[in-house]
Amino acid sequence: MNYMQLKAGPGAASGEEKEGFSLKAYRKYELASLYFPQAGKKGALQGLGRWIKQCAELEQALERSGYQKNRKFFLKSEVELIVRFLGEP
Fold it and tell me: Rounded to whole angstroms, how far apart are CA atoms 15 and 41?
């Protein structure tokens, strides 16, 4: 699913929720666990970090948005970028 489908999907007008996933700020391990539900906390974080590094466009978009690698959470705007490039978890 791409970003435009998410924005236009059911529930977009009421908090941009779709099937249990909502665009909001997440602790990094929470979002990573949604993408890697079978992995532990550390493994999920490493997996999501790898995916971000492998997608140069996403990595650049995050940098332009002011992303701070050492921060413990993703801002809503950063989650929107991640979903745009990687799809919904």
Answer: 27
Whether the CB-CB separation of 62 and 56 falls below 8 Å is answered with no
* pLDDT values of the chain reduced to their tens digit, one per residue, 89 residues: 443 333 333 333 334 444 578 999 999 999 999 999 999 999 999 999 999 999 999 999 999 999 998 999 999 999 999 999 999 99
Lookup: tokens for 2: 């791409």
* Cα–Cα distance, 3 to 23 (Å, whole number): 11
**Residue 48, number of CB atoms within 10 A of its CB:** 23
CA–CA distance, 40 with 17 (Å, rounded to integer): 26
